[in-house]
Predict the structure of L-2-hydroxyglutarate dehydrogenase, mitochondrial.
Amino acid sequence: MYRLILTRRLHTTNAVKVTQKVKLFDQLPGEGGKVKKGLEELLGPLRAANFQNPNPLKTVGYDHFDVAIVGGGIVGLATAREILKRYPDIKLTVLEKESDVAGQQTGHNSGVIHAGLYYEPGSEMAHTCVRGADLMYEYCEKNDLPVERCGKLVVACNKKEHEQVEKLYRQGTANGVKGLEIINSDKVTELEPNVKAYSALYSPNTGIVNYWLVSQCIADELRKSGRADIKTSFEAKKFEKTYDGQVRILGGEKIMDGPTLSVTAKHVITCAGLYSDRLATLTGGNGRKHKIVSFRGTYYQLKPEYRTLVKRNIYPVPSGGGIPVGVHFTPTVDVRRGHQTIVGPGACITFSREGYRFFDIKIKDVWDNVMNGAFWSFAIKNFTLSLGEVYRDLNKNAFLKSGQKYVPALTGDMVEPSFAGVMAQVFEKGGVAAGDFIVERNVMDGLILNVRNAPSPACTASFAIGEMITNCAEKDFNWKQQ
Ligand SMILES: Cc1cc2nc3c(=O)[nH]c(=O)nc-3n(C[C@H](O)[C@H](O)[C@H](O)COP(=O)(O)OP(=O)(O)OC[C@H]3O[C@@H](n4cnc5c(N)ncnc54)[C@H](O)[C@@H]3O)c2cc1C
């Protein structure tokens, strides 16, 4: 049998008393059997490291482009790829303020390929998530990148939560998610012996991937095309219209007062994640609308000996509020996480847009939140939830308690600190988290398009978002395919 059964003694944490037989799978999906497909498995971390830009200073040697994309996260990169695919004559540049691509949200997340359960049927999110997931599996398989269709359980702990499971089932089915099944507690135990559930939604098409590596692979593909230049350490700081109707972007190294660099492009697309509102203001867009609020998600990870405590993604039912709150268990194929199973994240308000630690503070960022009425409406409506998230960010036992609700065997000595990610979220008037991707069009007399809101599942959906943005660009910039 696949399972090894260990008996653990009574263990007490501050949060709960746990008496539990811990059952560990002796392998995760994709392990054992025939050699696992995947870059890291084939050639090891060294091969993966080759995807890093070998020389960030090496550029194509010119500064005039048809298109400039600001932001080298997965959304910007996937958009660049789609444009090159459709238009063989276009030359483009991706401008990224960090010294490498995918250094912000794209490189610090759960790595889940979402199947498309959570999104309003008919929304762009629903459509791009379902299509994007298929494209993501296809891309990873074609490029030998590690990816696993390990599945997911959304766990209901009681009858009330079961109603949410039913709602997700209906929503997912309407969105075209295949293979969804509501299962009872016995079936849950059969699939995941350490999970305690009233019932669960089983989604076999949910998977795991390493989005940082996917981004490196796309960047590599762009460079190899000979038609794209990735300029790292280029923070776009000013946008101006030239006398001949193009856009000049002035920028330079982040924080530094070094030389001003300049790039000119016929059209510009900004995909700036945590700074999308600030970039919009710089381009002449409506910076007062769609203000970004940033939340830090902190993760723990199961120590190597416990990494197979669960075999699939194990999620709670969504707790409301619209932001992805809820500690979940996710096996990883990420060499930077030691291939461990991660547990997290929370969603704690940050005092800095790139606040990876609690005490990272930037006055400008705090002030932006203070002046954001929509955020205040959210915080007041979800006061207990918001405060609970701050407490959980600082208190390991509170964090563990969230996981123990449905994996009671989890104890403090099973986990070690892992990493944190910071997510960008827009709130609509009235304090509701924006439920769809937002694109601001026809900025600077129709020369610029700004991606204003691309929260989860933007990694899953990235290739489909690339298609969606290219469709918008085609119309706004009057591009004609040959
Ligand atoms: C904790 C966490 C867990 C998540 N889990 C998942 C998941 O499991 N599955 C999923 O699909 N999604 C997940 N997401 C969401 C996903 O990571 C993001 O939606 C996605 O990465 C957004 O991509 P992006 O390219 O828009 O943003 P980013 O990756 O943030 O990229 C934006 C880039 O723009 C650059 N930039 C900003 N300003 C400038 C400037 N002035 N000049 C030049 N460059 C600039 C930044 O440096 C950055 O590299 C998660 C997010 C977080 C934080």
Observations:
- Residues 152-204 form one domain.
- The first strand starts at residue 3 and ends at 7.
- The longest helix spans residues 124-142.
- Confidence is low (pLDDT under 50) at residues 1-17, 54-59.
